[in-house]
Design brief:
alpha+beta, Alpha-Beta Plaits, 3-stranded mixed β-sheet, 3-stranded antiparallel β-sheet, 18% helix
Length: 190
């Protein structure tokens, strides 16, 4: 089976957070819990100030540190090579949270368990897109074959805002804006 990856076109993203809201609604998440989050970053100074937005979720890594850190195997690599979480095996120890360099797994105080993006596996199983992909009004998010790197674009997995991709080999392709490579950035919460 082929590994799937998220493709994110940063050059088209307007930071509307529709993907974030669709994910939260689809998964009926607690207040403060997000499986997909849109974060904005500013670079430069007036008159050359710039902004870009990054839509982040689980990267369904090839070498997932969350899986390495899970003592019960609740976090695991599934048959379709995505990183999944089995709530029936989770004891809420948070080791997966501490091990994930992207800070993806989320702890729920209500359930006492961890959860995360499952790439909307239920929708993929019936041939549909994840909720975040279909909700994106700018069509910035898509699902692609993780081995398909010949898209004719300058894609990256490494940006100053992200951990080194060689650690986990994330299943993400990013079409970046030039300012996303500026290491002098400030994170903005809107």
């Amino acid at each position: 089976m082929k590994r799937r990856a998220f493709y994110f076109d940063m050059t088209s993203c307007i930071g509307c957070k529709t993907c974030q809201i669709a994910c939260k609604d689809k998964n009926d998440l607690d207040i403060g819990t997000l499986f997909r989050k849109v974060v904005s970053f500013e670079t430069g100074v007036f008159p050359n100030a710039k902004i870009y937005h990054y839509s982040t979720s689980c990267n369904h890594c090839e070498n997932p540190k969350c899986v390495e850190g899970c003592p019960t195997r609740a976090m695991h690599i599934s048959e379709d090579l995505s990183v999944q979480h089995d709530a029936s095996k989770c004891v809420g120890c948070k080791y997966c949270i501490w091990n994930c360099p992207y800070g993806v797994p989320q702890f729920s105080k209500k359930t006492g368990l961890v959860s995360k993006c499952n790439m909307c596996q239920d929708l993929l199983d019936i041939g549909q897109n994840p909720a975040c992909v279909d909700a994106c009004i700018m069509r910035c998010l898509t699902i692609v074959d993780a081995e398909d790197t010949n898209r004719g674009e300058n894609l990256t997995k490494d940006l100053p805002i992200l951990p080194n991709s060689q650690i986990t080999h994330p299943s993400i392709y990013i079409k970046p804006k030039p300012q996303a490579f500026d290491s002098s950035f400030s994170k903005k919460e809107y």
